[in-house]
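As a warm-up, study this chain.
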Amino acid sequence: MYLFKFAFFITLIYGQILLAQDAHYWTNQYGTRADLLGGLVVGSIKDLSSTYYNPGAIAFSTDQSLVLTTDAVEISTIKLKNVAGRGFDLSSTQSGAAPSIFAVRLTFEKLRKNHLAFFYLTRHDFKFDAVGRRIDTRGPYLFDPFQEYFTGEVNYVQNLFESWGGLTWSRRVGEKAGIGISQIIAYRSQRGRFQTIAQLVSGEGDGSALILADAYKYYNLRTLWKIGFTFDYRPISFGFTFTTPSLNIFGDGSTFINVGGIEIDTSGSGSSYTSLASNYQEKLAAYYRSPLSIAVGAAYRFHHTSLYFTLEWFNSVSRFKVLETENFIAQTSGELWKTDFSHELKSIINFGFGVQHEFHKKLSIYGSVFTDRSAKIPGSDTRFSISNWDIIHITTGSSLTFWRLDLTLGITIGFGKEYFEQVVDFGKLETVGDFLPVNGDSEVLYRRIKFIIGFSFMY
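Now compare it with the structure written out below.
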């Protein structure tokens, strides 16, 4: 059963390595100064980005921003080195506009003590499109009758988009404290496709071929809340937030699985055969869960310099079915194929430090460094989360205020690396049946550069 050995190990590669990027919670930041500080503003009082970071701070906003928005351009690369043998790499580069926020303050004369703001932000916007190919000849001599010819292609596509929108209410409690809550509606859309085509033949005409395709797509709507508290005891301020687990509203999706192949044996032993296991399911209920998280932050100002710190804990998400699929019967073998489109995440903690130095009331420079740990569970077979590398982000930039505009310019660099066990080595396949695992090491490299341009309009 050479063909199914190969299919099994390719599936392992798919489940353990080529995964979508949504297991990091701190990759994207929002707002003008918040972007330059890496989002380390849970304990500070700044602008309308608090609708996301700490709703309790909206009541303390010293500016009266009518509109807050940011624009950023980012370039990110993910390279999987030696996935199926030395020199067999997969890589993907994504460039374009980075996720951003738009927020508007709502003012009502009769609600002067109650502060309201509407916001919309892109929580995830990730695209991964990678193709790896290998064509070679194995044998001692050219045109040797015992020569083996191999060709293989691995194609992986993954697209993820998620947006958050909602309304924030905030109010002061005395002179030094504030409380707020953001009601959030989250829309998530994700699709992925993994496809492998491989063929191994001999000069005598023996051989086997495989087509393996695994695809899904879904959308989901859910709701969650973020509750925030802010305390202002200058020169120090601090705050903390609670983000609730999400509650499902509705969703819909589909799946496709196709494993087919053929094996030819010219020796007359009767071992030639064909096989097919194919299934398509649509109009499936789709679910998604985001975790409970608790964040604490503080800011301290002395002279013209301010220091910032934020720590956030994310709870684990127990295994759940993203798509409610049913098992099916393979067409040629009559075997029962089990389908499992489930997801799970582990608990993590992220933290970071930031600094701001004010040269003038209208000119400041910023710097920050923060972690972005992966919530993927090592060894998990989920299709819906990223591999288990952790990321370090470093940001620097400046802000300038003139007339009614608060302008920010900056750059963020992110990097991460992780090793994983190589599952199969295409380069060592010497016979039709030699689809065997090896003990080599492979490597994942992640790089990201983000150029920040943001502005806040003072009303």
